[in-house]
Amino acid sequence: MADPAVVGSNSLGTGMRSGGSKNTSSPAENYHLARRRTLQVVVSSLLTECGFDSAEKAAVESLTEMIQSYISEVGRWAKSCCEHTARSTPTLSDVVLTLVEMGFNVDSLPVYAKRSQRMVITAPPVTNAPVVPKALMAGQKRTHPTHIPSYFPEFPDPHTYIKTPTFREPVSDYQVVREKAASQRRDVERALTRFMAKTGETQSLFKDDITAFPLIAAHPSSIPYLNALLPSELELQTLEETDSSEQDEQTDSENAAGNIINDESGADKENSVLPPGGVVPAVKASEENVIDNPYLRPVKKPKVRRKK
Amino acid sequence: MNRKKDKGFESPRPYKLTHQVVCINNINFQRKSVIGYVELTIFPTVVNLNRIKLNSKQCRIYRVRVNDLEAPFIYNDPTLEVCHHESKQRNLNYFSSAYTAAVSAVDPDSGNGELCIKVPSELWKQGDEMKVLKVYIEFSLDQPKGGLHFVVPDEEGSMAERGAHVFSFGYQNSTRFWFPCVDSYSELCTWKLEFTVDAAMVAVSCGDLVETVYTHDMRKKTFHYVLPIPTAAPNISLAVGPFEILVDPYMHEVTHFCLPQLLPLLKHSMSYLHEIFEFYEEILTCRYPYSCFKTVFVDEAYVQVSSYASMSIFSTNLLHSAMIIDQTPLTRRCLAQALAQQFFGCFISRMSWSDEWVLKGISGYIYGLYLKKTFGVNEYRHWIKEELDKIVEYELKTGGVLLHPTFCGGKEKDNPTPHLHFSIKHPHTLSWEYYKMFQCKAHLVMRLIENRISMEFMLQVFNKLLSLASTASSQKYQSHMWSQMLVSTSGFLKSISNVSGKDIGPLIKQWVDQSGVVKFFGSFAFNRKRNVLELEIRQDYTSSGTQKYVGPIKVTVQELDGSFNHTLQIEENSLKHDIPCHSKSRRNKKKKIPLMNGEEVDMDLSAMDADSPLLWIRIDPDMSILRKVEFEQADFMWQYQLRYERDVVAQEEAISALEKFPTPASRLALTDILEQEQCFYKVRMQACFCLAKIANSMVSTWTGPPAMKSLFTRMFCCKSCPNIVKTNNFINFQSYFLQKTMPVAMALLRDVQNLCPKEVLNFILDLIKYNDNRKNKFSDNYYRAELIDALTNSLTPAINISNEVRTVDNLSADVRLILEEITRFLNMEKLLPSYRNTITVSCLRAIRMLQKNGHIPSDPSLFKSYAEYGHFVDVRIAALEAVVDYTRVDRSSGELQWLLNMVQNDPAHYIRHKILSMLSKNPPFTKAAESSLCNEALVDQLWKLMNSGTSHDWRLRCDAVNLYYTLFGLTRPSCLPLPELGLVLNLKEKKAVLNPTIKPEMAGSGATEPGAGTNFHAPAAAFPSSMEEEHMAMEPPTSAAALPPQGLKRKAETPLGSPPEPGQFNPQEEEDIDMDTVHDSQAFIYHHLNMLERPSTPGKEPPSMEQAILSMPATPLPVFSKETNSSSKHSEHHHHHHHHHEHKKKKKKHKHKHKHKHKHDSKDKDKDKDRDGHGATNSPASGRSLRSPSLSD
To answer: How much is the pTM?
Structure first.
């Protein structure tokens, strides 16, 4: 189906992408492998120290795992301790405290460090520290002001708090707004009616070209007065909106100015004659119970049939 | 009929009805049928009451019992088919007289009726003792075409879920269409009404709902109503449907009903009804006469408002929500009208048809008072002017509206309205338009009476009428007192003179007893030397529809020193009137000028004539004469009048006068008025249109932007961007109406090429584009509709070559834009319909205008689809109007047929009526012009339509008559072939004359001849028919004068059906029926009903029919005998008389002849049918069956 060029380019694209991902992940992997290897060497030398000649690979692996856990735990705990004291970098005392907490006799440490049979291990090969992909720099990174000690954490990256204006200034020109609203509405209406006309029956004004100016066909309804008399949902909706925001001033401020003055006479009169919607029924609703209207009375049960 | 000398009311019936029970047991919506019975309680007022005549139409009557005894009865309705015999006459004169005769023959006001019940002989004795008779009638209605209207939407679900409902309707007294009764406004009785309906439905009727009881199966319930106030049958109504019920929050005895889902609208629309109640009760100082009031809103209503005793039926389309501006005042007006008629029309009824004007007048007058109070004096005066203009125009066009016709003289030259093509003797023969104008004139005349006797007295008179009536209505057992509830012209006038002590005789004589309006022409000159205004007032009282006025007239002169009223006396020969002026001509010192209302204003007097102190002059400023004034004064005077006169009527007069003065000064005056916010908004709206006209007249010298554009921009557009209209805010109604109107008027502007200026069109398109209603609390549907109307107004004829086919490609750019908008609006309406579909209505009009101007192909199919049943009624009317217009322009017989078809078959009565009246207003052709549409088939079709096809609806029949008149005139349509015989024998004069129709111009002239009825030979000339009829029509009037005594005539009549048995009846009896010949009345009625159901396809009924009908004297004949001379121009009439003579002479032979003739007839039947071709009636009729025993022998 698809033409070969597209397929080719697609596969090419994915290939490139996967290649890229491998490159980025390999330094971190190397780093971890190197560290593990160093730990294995350490475990092996300790075993040698203890007099083992050989060890199963699995045992070495387990021991490596254990030592790694231990070191990690020490580091983690030390960090907690330092943060507890509102610092960011652990100090010796933090490590000591950690070791104490972990039930390690710290005093034995210097002795152990100075043991005679200690094997010296060569430093692990220097591997590149994993390149942390740099966050996009946005703006100047702020330095601490002078009154903040330098050990306090640095400011976060600027992109987290700097506002970057990515939109254009909205058009506030009244004329353009109206223009836009008008043409938008017109487009929607036209599209909608065209759609309706395309999908349904139509009538035409021209015999030669029935697609020009299509009119949605008139269909009689069984109760025509309902549609014609009841306000449409849209109208009801706008009515609610205008009711709630009746005091909204018009966008065009002078729009109302002329009217307001005249309103009073007209509106007064109108209000006196036209009680606003729900007021009347609401007041009278409570009296509803006492209204004696023959049409509200219950229907009587038939009497026993009289004989004719 | 005639004005009674005393107030006493004489019943035309030999009995008094006191109580009536109407019980409808079953209403079947599926089959549209109704079953029930009525029981009338009557007191005979004569000894030996042996026959009871009642009114009943289309009811199938199963049995009649009088005091539990089976009673034979006869049912005959001559109005079913007006001209029975298949005459070739086809002229309207003939039809009108026959129709009037038919209506008279069943007119309850003359004691007649369709249903004649013979009182069983066992009960005759009772008459002596004046004992009560109970007449029990079982009846049913099957698919009634009139009287009751079923609305059954075609949907799923039960009838209640579908919103099916039924209601009674009719024009004037039409209750006989749905139950047997005495269908007269003067026969009052108390009522018990019972209706059994589905449990999910409500039956609303007149009077108090006493109780509602379930039937035994609990699936139905019965509504029991009692109406203790004596009420005439025409004021009884019924509405049944699944109505939602709203008890009025202010008045708990008032209940409103509407169709499902409309309750919120009902709540809003009814929220001010209590104010109307309070207003009427206050001015009339009388409580609302009934103990309750009900309003019911139904679909497919016959008229917008109809009032019945304690209830009114309205069109559901009057309901509106709070968002709708334009409908609100209209609905309030309708409610006010309905309520006014509750007092005068329902509670107070009338003695006879000629007293109708009092009721219509009073209800219209108090309705006007309500308008004044609610909508203000400006609105009221504007309305009065509008009504006055309407009536003046109508009377001048048709020749006059007569409020109080008297038919006493009986001589045909006394026919009060020879200028009309219909009789005004009965409400049922009136054209609808005439009746509307009649009501309009009635209330205007009431206002004239008020001017004369003061409003205080006027209201006292009304109060007196009401309190008399309410005293009478409480007299339960003294039914003779009930006539106090009937108003008569004489009684009303007597009340007026008692209360006010003033003689209004001349006023009544001028406006009530006489038709026509006054036409004044005024002009003036200022005599500087004498400082006198020389006013000349001339009258035209010779042209049709006018009358001469003699009496006082008020003239108001606005001078520099103030405004002065002068009362001049219009006399026979004085045309000139000198009016001394108060001010010495023009002064230079600047001083404020006092106006009529005491206000003092600064005026720029530079436009004035320096020699004259006159600013403006008004003739009859209070409209206290029914008149048209054409007054000549200088343009600057009209301009002053427009600017400074505070009366809206004066302003409107000035505006219409200024149309003739297209000058910059007029332009300025109009623009100033437009801007003046204190000015009445309707004046400002009128000024818009005048300004457009002036601008068009001044097109070559016009400077600046198109008229009103800058004004509109200033008032309604944004300050910052003047091309964009503000977002809608219609809270100020005055500016709303102006904002709506200005674009419509601007679109009428034309440039030098007579095109709408591009600037204006773009302006309107921008208004549409930038219209934004989101922040408005009111709907903008009317505004948008008017913007479309503005687009319509901007259209001018296309400059296509006439034969070129209109295609999309050669649309002009402007039209393309317009069409784009219309398409979008029309399509959007399908998704978001506007209130009352105003936008669709405007779009349809616009499309028709585009077609008419040749921009798009003329094609009625779109309109036809919108005219189908099932669209909103306003849309249908707009579409039908377009089809009617198309029919005229394209002379399409297919469309005309389609329209006439709809007239016959559409379920909605209003639509049928509208089609005919639109066709009459915009006729496809007229009697004056030749047309290919005018052919024999059309004549036959229309003739059938008015003769028999519309018997179920008086209004429709009169519409059909109107259309026939518009198309063919009064005489035989010119397209008909000449009758076979060129020579006509005049047996009386014993000579042969040339058939008058051979001279068509003569026949044609008959239509315009004002006194067609007065000249005896003229109508005869207009009746080109078969020979035997012709000769009878030609008979000179001497024979009519020498009438035989009625008894003898009767005798002559009876043998027609069957042998008479004279011993059985009192020989003095006027209208004798040979009851015993009707052996099986049930079977007989059955036949009749069959005929009833298909009145337009007669000829199938069995021959026995013929005999049965002929046995009945309830044909038009009795009426003729009584009112002989008044209608003696009718040919049928003469024709009968002729026979009467014959019968008298050869009474004995007679029987034999008729027997013979019947055979002859039935034999000939098939032949006849073939000959007639169009299957027109051959139902037995006086005309044909009587036709010439002499010839058939």
So the answer is: 0.75
